[in-house]
Amino acid sequence: MTRSSLSVKQSANDLQRAVDALGPWFQNIDLGTVQTAPDHFLGDYPAFKFARFADALPADLTGKSVLDIGCNAGFYSIEMKRRGAAEVLGIDTDPRYLAQAEFVAETLGFDGIEFRSLSVYDVARIGRKFDLVIFMGVLYHLRHPLLALDLIRDHVADDMLLFQTMQRGSEDVADVPEDHPFHVPGTTEPPAYFDDPGYPKMHFIERQYAGDWTNWWAPNRACSEAMLRAAGFRIEAQPEAEVYLCKVTERPFTGWGPGGGAVYPAREQEEKA
After folding, report:
1. Cβ distance 151 to 142 under 8 Å?
2. pTM greater than 0.85
3. How many CA atoms lie within 13 A of 169 on its CB side?
4. What pLDDT is recorded for position 3?
5. Other beta carbons less than 10 A from residue 163's beta carbon
């Protein structure tokens, strides 16, 4: 074995020790000689999933700003930087994930990515909007999912939203009326819309799902799409079963009262009061 090959082996061993010290990892990221989660139960996750919808995003993000909400170990933050994004901010509330993300960015040599401890409920604190907001794998972990979408729309989304959530139930989308009658005309019976498998439904998980007590919600397809529209996002594409690329648009019922937008006050406004 040559001295150079010994050096490479030693470097790989050091890298593996660093990866192990930061574990466990939920994202498998290729660091060259080492992968962070090669035995992931989903396979090469999230790379295999990203490959299914990568073409739906602009190949060139030169000059664009990106916010990655729930960035985990930074997979999508890194991928957006690979596409030339001028500014990438990844936020998460788990200090272990943030440490992993910073380690990955440094190891791969990507400058210009910031990682910050921040909840989706506090995005108003960032104080600015981004060309692309990534909100993947987070909604179903939240106690207040529609509020999160409202806050993203109001405070940080300027143009595009890349959204993904776990979906369960029917893939059908029912033709829902603009206004639901309280009774079937001429009767005292409720309308049958709510029993349609394609009606927007959010399944509530009271205890655990797949051993995870933070899995609170599982919308069906119709519910995901309806919630996005209700929060003020127009669906431009659905490149993969649970993935939506959206554009910011006007929220329905804007100006009708406090129910037309996020009712959760920005923390920065509270602090100024």
Report:
1. no
2. yes
3. 22
4. 42
5. 26
